[in-house]
Every structure is written in structure tokens, then in C-alpha cells.
Amino acid sequence: MVHPARTVHGVSQSKRAVLRGGFRLMSLTKERKTELIGTYRRADADTGSAEVQIALLTGRISHLTEHFKKHAKDYASRRGLLQLVSRRRRLLDYLKRVAPQRYLEIIKRLDIRK
User: What is the percentage of the chain residues whose pLDDT exceeds 90?
Assistant: First the structure.
């Protein structure tokens, strides 16, 4: 059962977002995500290393950047973009502190300026 505070007229919050044209495509497609994980993983079973997370965030950031070229006034999604950029920045700072060589490699491979 859906919590009553999260429904309006019997329609859930996520369904309302889809119905009113909410932006549900902010994540990558499954194929693109698998491709990025395969490209940036450090071992065969690696899906969560800092490099993989940074690559996935970079993919989502570039997708949203393209979105804003068409929808300049989508301020709600812009806030999400800023959150993604901040999360990627924190991961890059962590990687720079822990493994400077891996940091340099990932910013070069992803062509991230810094």
C-alpha cells in the first residue's frame, strides 16, 4: 500500500511525474551503463570502484547537459545536475587523495578538465 501522504487523488508521486512529463530518463540506458562499467572497471567483478562511479556520473552529466540545450528553463533538473557534479567532484577529490595516478588516468580518459 502506498503511503497516503505520497498520493494525490490516488496517483503515486512517481506516476504523477511520468504523467505530467516528468524527467525519468536522467539515468543511462542499461546498455550504455554496462558499456561504461566494462570500459572503466579495474577487475572483472568491479562495478563500484571510484573510476566506474565517476564514469557513470560523467555519462549522466553529459546527458543532462544536452537536455539543457533544448530546455534552458528546467530548473528542477538543473539542481539535480549540480548535485551530480558535486558528487563526481567529491569522488575525484577522494581518488586524488588516495591514488593520484588513478586520478590522473581517469580525468585524462574522460576528458574532464581540472
Answer: 74
